[in-house]
């Protein structure tokens, strides 16, 4: 067997190393050139989070200067708007702390870091869940002003940003020249309609801000949450200790799953269906729009049953359901009462009806508004959960979602550009003594 001398082996090793380094060099420079070209062409799209924060600051600095606000950045991470805020929501169902900021990962106190001095004074009238986010001192460190009385809050405000509609105690505090921006749900509330007309305010409702394609950008975020919570609440009240019939929606080996009937296939209905199906419940969605039913069939690949909205079908599905979710919506109008008292009476005792449409008056003849303190009542043995503003159950999540969504619209209103934005114009319900919204 031929052998290779030590000298030859060393020479061969050197030759291999030289070839190896030459190969690396040959690969390195072309790859480097390609990477450099890619960076020059697309590098502007790759930015660090700190650079994005700085861009947000520059953008809102420009916006605030246009509106006549001064802009004072603060040291530390992130940023935010300093808003005057104070007073908890009078409505027992409202637990939202409204924080206006484009940076959802920051703590609320940090979000008040950018300062908007007066040409327009924005007030946040929500503090019910303040303890979830930290004491007032944290907000004051970032420049927020804590207002102690309702009278001071409303008397100094030109733009009032709320979550829930004004309560009866606040009607007399609204005045001419002010703009109110909040959820209003005017259709079933004649008292509030009259109060807003008499006050002379311009009232813009979150739920009726409508884009060209008919979508409702400020209602959708809360509808997603409400749809998911509807099933969550239903599960709780189906439990025997809560007065329910003791049904597990997912079923068990040898035991069929619970049945969920969702009346209305909009955003609320879709999110309720996602949660119910995730629990392996037997789910049926009823809607008047055949295109929505086609969409559901495709999205869920037939796992969610779909039915058209005829009285006979509604009656059949409601009477057979363990949990019924009312998710009917007609934009700006009172919710149609598609569920009759007879249909409710046909349900088994201990079944649960969650009426998410209660904000617009409810979709059942048996519906009446309840609170978180007394959330349920029984009609014919069927538990009714009709709490208005269901998302306030998860106030932290709801606050961040809503704040990020409404911020661009708040800036436009404060900048006097409401009439220039068709979506905001559609959102005007009452305008200086006149009702603008068609409530059907």
How many extended strands?
Answer: 17
Number of alpha- plus pi-helical segments: 13
Could you estimate the helical fraction of the residues in percent? 25-40%
- Rounded mean pLDDT is 77
Strand content: 5-15%
SSE order in H/E notation?
HHEEEEHHEHEEHEHEHEHEHEHEEEHHEE
Summarize the model shown.
The protein has 440 residues and is an alpha/beta fold. It has helices at residues 6-42, 49-66, 130-133, 136-141, 150-155, 190-199, 220-238, 267-278, 290-299, 311-320, 341-345, 395-414, 422-427; strands at residues 81-82, 84-85, 114-115, 122-124, 145-146, 159-161, 179-182, 202-205, 259-263, 282-287, 305-308, 323-326, 352-355, 376-379, 382-385, 428-431, 434-435.
């Amino acid at each position: 067997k031929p052998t290779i001398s030590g000298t030859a082996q060393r020479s061969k090793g050197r030759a291999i190393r030289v070839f190896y380094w030459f190969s690396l060099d040959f690969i390195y420079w072309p790859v480097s050139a390609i990477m450099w070209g890619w960076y020059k062409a697309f590098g502007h799209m790759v930015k660090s989070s700190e650079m994005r924060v700085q861009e947000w600051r520059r953008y809102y600095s420009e916006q605030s200067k246009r509106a006549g606000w001064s802009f004072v950045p603060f040291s530390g991470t992130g940023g935010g708007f300093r808003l005057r805020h104070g007073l908890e929501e009078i409505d027992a169902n409202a637990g939202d702390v409204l924080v206006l900021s484009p940076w959802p990962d920051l703590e609320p106190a940090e979000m008040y870091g950018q300062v908007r001095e007066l040409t327009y004074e924005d007030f946040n009238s929500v503090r019910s869940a303040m303890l979830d986010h930290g004491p007032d001192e944290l907000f004051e460190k970032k420049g927020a002003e804590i207002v102690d009385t309702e009278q001071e809050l409303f008397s100094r405000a030109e733009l009032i940003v709320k979550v829930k509609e004004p309560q009866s105690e606040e009607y007399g505090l609204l005045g001419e020249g002010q703009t109110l921006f909040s959820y209003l749900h005017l259709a079933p509330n004649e008292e509030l309609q009259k109060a807003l007309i008499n006050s002379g305010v311009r009232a813009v409702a979150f739920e009726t801000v409508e884009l060209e394609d008919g979508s409702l950008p400020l209602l959708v975020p809360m509808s997603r949450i409400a749809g998911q919570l509807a099933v969550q609440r239903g599960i709780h009240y189906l439990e025997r200790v809560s007065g329910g019939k003791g049904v597990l929606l997912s079923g068990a080996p040898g035991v069929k799953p619970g049945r969920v009937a969702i009346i209305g296939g909009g955003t609320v209905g879709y999110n309720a269906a996602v949660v119910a199906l995730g629990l392996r419940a037997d789910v049926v969605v009823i809607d008047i729009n055949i295109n929505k039913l086609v969409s559901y069939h495709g999205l869920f690949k037939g796992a969610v049953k779909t039915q058209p909205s005829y009285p006979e079908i509604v009656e059949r599905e409601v009477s057979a359901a363990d949990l019924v979710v009312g998710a009917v919506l007609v934009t700006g109008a009172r919710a149609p009462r598609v569920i009759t008292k007879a249909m409710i009476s046909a349900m088994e005792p201990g079944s649960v009806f969650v009426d998410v449409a209660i904000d617009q008056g409810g979709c059942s003849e048996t519906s009446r508004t309840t609170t978180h303190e007394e959330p349920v009542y029984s009609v014919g043995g069927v538990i009714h959960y009709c709490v208005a503003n269901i998302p306030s159950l998860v106030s932290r999540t709801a606050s961040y979602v809503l704040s990020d969504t409404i911020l661009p619209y708040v800036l436009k209103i404060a900048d006097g550009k409401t009439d220039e934005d068709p979506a905001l114009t559609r959102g005007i319900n009452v305008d200086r003594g006149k009702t603008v919204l068609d409530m059907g």
